[in-house]
Amino acid sequence: MIIEPRMRGFICLTAHPVGAAQNVKNQIEYVKSNGAIANGPKKVLVIGASTGFGLASRISAAFGSDAATIGVFFEKGPAEGKTASPGWYNSAAFETEAHAAGLYAKSINGDAFSNEIKQQTIDLIKADLGQVDLVVYSLASPVRQHPVTGVLHRSTLKPIGGVFSNKTVDFHTGKVSEVTIQPAVEEDIENTVVVMGGEDWAMWIDALKDAGVLAEGATTVAYSYIGPAVTEAVYRKGTIGRAKDHLEATAFEIADKLKDINGHAYVSVNKALVTQASSAIPVIPLYISLLYKIMKAKGLHEGTIEQIDRLYRQRLYTGGEVPVDEKGRIRIDDWEMREDVQAEVAKLWGDATTENLAEIGDLEGYRLDFYNLFGFDVADVDYKADANELVNIDSIK
Ligand code: NAD
Ligand code: NA
User: Hey, which of 140, 192, 246, 330 has its CA 20 to 30 A from 153?
Assistant: First the structure.
């Protein structure tokens, strides 16, 4: 069928399988163009492997280091006349490319927060790989059903301690307006920490270690964000920031537990990028559109694949010590946070209006990245051609 983008609010309800496949191929080509990663990972589990930073982590491991990969994600498959979710098509394309390159790749589609999916993953590692040497934790979810209590927790994006008011943009229309967000109550903070904090990451590592499927010297990494002063009240000092504080603290707990197998646990602080998760956060799209403009002008712009490729080559797998900041975190947001970049964003932030944003910001780049997430507006794809929506993932029948 002919597949077109169908928008509802900040969400696109359709996805294009051919465009998604082209995105995956482009990411693979990028990694291959940088050559092999010396001493890279060989058997890799990626939790949250179908989109964003997790997909880039899977691609970088497979095509930079010939790694066997197991990807866990929660995506919707296609039905007759209905497209799958983008992560489904990404994963189908990833497996096709990996298998064509002679690489092991299998996927598990289900709720990573559940005991069942953890057990299924352990069984698959035991059967096929024996052990894994890298576990990437890259979940972004608005909800988590707690596996012990059965309670469904919802995360929120709220400031703590006071009302937040600042500029935001509707990136579809380009309209800059003022957004006001009421402060969180204690329960919002607790719920957000339960969903996006480190508890589930620790549960995964405990389960994997107890099952004996973590290799001697295994590494695990989870992703965090800090960002600029303009988003601080709603992001890093808001409910999601509390969850990130918790995630970062959990890295030290996990590192302690991995000492007896000489393992390591890290949090990597990544750059702000257009993903399904970040598009839903007020203020962030305006910040990103200004940031992109400046970083592109300075030749510093990166997407998820450039970020993760750099994480592997220049942080995790240099063969030497992993460089970390004073809080023990890996920083690949270093270019975003450069003083000159941030000073220019802060200046443009004050100037930004509906009238000038298309010029002073990279609204076009934001929109393009957003549509690309769903496989639309990807270069070299013929969108007028019939596309088969019923694409299978090789390992999921
Ligand atoms: P994303 O939405 O692109 O990816 C989320 C992944 O989690 C997908 O593979 C999805 O299928 C999976 N997932 C969600 N719920 C699941 C569940 N219940 N069970 C199994 N899989 C599930 O998100 P992203 O932007 O790549 O975020 C990944 C991590 O990176 C998050 O911790 C996020 O905070 C962090 N991060 C994001 C940014 C950014 O700007 N996007 C910046 C820095 C750090
Ligand atoms: Na991800």
Answer: 330
- Length of the chain (residues): 397
The number of domains in the chain is: 1
- As annotated, the binding site includes 48-53, 74-75, 111-112, 139-140, 225, 244, 273-275
For 11, left (φ over 0), alpha (ψ -120 to 50), or beta?
Answer: beta
How does pLDDT run across 167-206, given as a tens digit for each residue? 999 998 999 999 999 999 999 999 999 999 999 999 999 9
Give yes or no for a contact between 184 and 164, defined as CB atoms under 8 angstroms apart. no
Q: Which domain holds residue 104?
A: 7-373
Sheet strands (E) in the chain: 7-8, 11-12, 43-47, 68-73, 105-109, 132-137, 143-145, 152-154, 164-170, 175-181, 214-224, 264-269, 330-331
Q: What is the CATH number of the domain that holds 24?
A: 3.40.50.720
At 284, is the secondary structure helix, strand, or coil?
Answer: helix
User: Dihedral (C-alpha) 189, 191, 193, 195: value to the nearest 10 degrees?
Assistant: -150
Encode pLDDT of 344-370 as tens digits: 999 999 999 999 999 999 999 999 999
**Is residue 283 helix, strand or coil?**
coil
ipTM for the whole predicted complex goes beyond 0.90: yes
Nearest to 106 by CA among 137, 73, 74, 70: 70
Using the structure block, give the residue that is written with the tokens 């499927």.
213
